[in-house]
Amino acid sequence: MAPTLSAEARAYALEASALNTRRAYGAAWSDFATWCDAAGHPPLPASPETVGTFLVARASTHKAASLSMRLVAIGQAHRLAGHRLDTGHPAIRETMKGIRRTHGTAPAKKDAAVADVIRDAVAAPVQRPGPRALRDRALLLVGFAAALRRSELVALDVADVAFMAEGLILTLRRAKTDQDGRGVEIAIPFGRSERTCPVLTLHAWLGAAGIQAGPAFVSVTRHGRATGTRLSDRDVARVVKETVAAAGYDPTTFAGHSLRSGFITTAAREGVAERHIKNQSRHKSLPVLRGYIRRGSLFVDNAAARVGL
User: Fold this and answer.
1) Domains identified in the chain, total number
2) Which of 60, 65, 69, 159 is spaced 20 to 30 Å from 223 by Cα?
3) Residue 290 catalytic?
4) Highest mean pLDDT: which of 44-53, 118-127, 173-182?
5) H or E segment at 168?
6) Which residue in the list 176, 195, 230, 278 is annotated as catalytic?
7) Domain boundary, last residue among 36, 68, 103
8) pLDDT of 94-128, one tens digit each?
9) Angle, nearest 10°, between helix axes 131-145 and 233-246?
């Protein structure tokens, strides 16, 4: 049996993944461990047959992508504990293949908050004076214009924001695709309209809230006082849903990721070159990025529009 990692080494190994990834893996492993306990199987080490049976048990309630993530989490837990799980074993490989063939692999995508949606959503908080409404507008506009992930948006500190003559530059200290913490700079130019300008709105929010250091986006009391408590990624989703609902859209079709996907979709519709979209979105995987671009470009130079129907 391979030697196990020390507690300190295991802590560093866990830090190799982003916080949201660790949360997802933790929840996936907990689900597997709970199922094993109820079924009378040891979770560590687990046999390929046990893992395959678990996947079958979850196939009717979880999508293939969710099951794949659970499989990765189970494998990681085994490696950290010094065990080997053969995920290529037929009991696992063929089971997953059958699940994908039977249930399909297409994910249920949330709507992209394209520029028109953002303009409408930003108009809703304008009707509500006060710091919280101003914060929500800044959150939407900055998240959209910089194509930020929810975790990146709420991780911004005032020290990461530099206002320039051309707009502002955000420094992302650590991102999903920058696990070594080298940092990356994202530029946001001034907007065409004062109401939808991310630069002016962020500047106004920080000034109104009196924020000079620490988190850029914080909670606000019902009396309009900024608390200094950093928002969470769940707060981003809540703000998106609340503002699109106020603008007359179905909030159930949007999520926190809709800001990022909305930027990519809008840029694709406007004919922005792929390399320029990638500079802003910082995608490492071109197939993932091209999936967003293709969806956003479905009606751009569409052949069906030129056949005379």
Assistant:
1) 2
2) 159
3) no
4) 44-53
5) strand 167-172
6) 176
7) 103
8) 999 998 888 765 555 667 778 888 999 988 766 67
9) 100
**127 and 178 assigned to the same domain:** yes
Domain that holds residue 80: 7-103
Residue that has been written with the tokens 């956003």 in this structure: 296
Whether the pTM exceeds 0.90: the reply is no
User: What is the predicted pLDDT for the residue at 286?
Assistant: 76
Distance CA 167, CA 190 (A): 5
Give Dmax (Cα) for the chain: 70
Q: Is position 223 annotated as part of the catalytic site?
A: no
What region does 308 belong to: left with phi over 0, alpha with psi -120 to 50, or beta? left
Q: What is the CATH number of the domain that holds 175?
A: 1.10.443.10
Active-site residue identified among 63, 137, 149, 282:
149
**292 in catalytic set:** yes
Q: Element (H or E) spanning 294, and its range?
A: helix 286-296
Catalytic residue among 78, 137, 150, 257: 257
Distance CA 272, CA 275 (A): 8
Three-state DSSP class for 256?
Answer: coil
Look up residue 184 and give its two tokens: 């990356």
Q: What is the DSSP string of 220-239?
A: E-TTS-EEEEEPPHHHHHHH
Q: State both tokens at 48.
A: 């390929």
H/E run at residue 162: strand 161-163
Let me know: does 165 contact 147? Beta carbons within 8 Å.
Answer: no
One-letter identity of residue 243: T
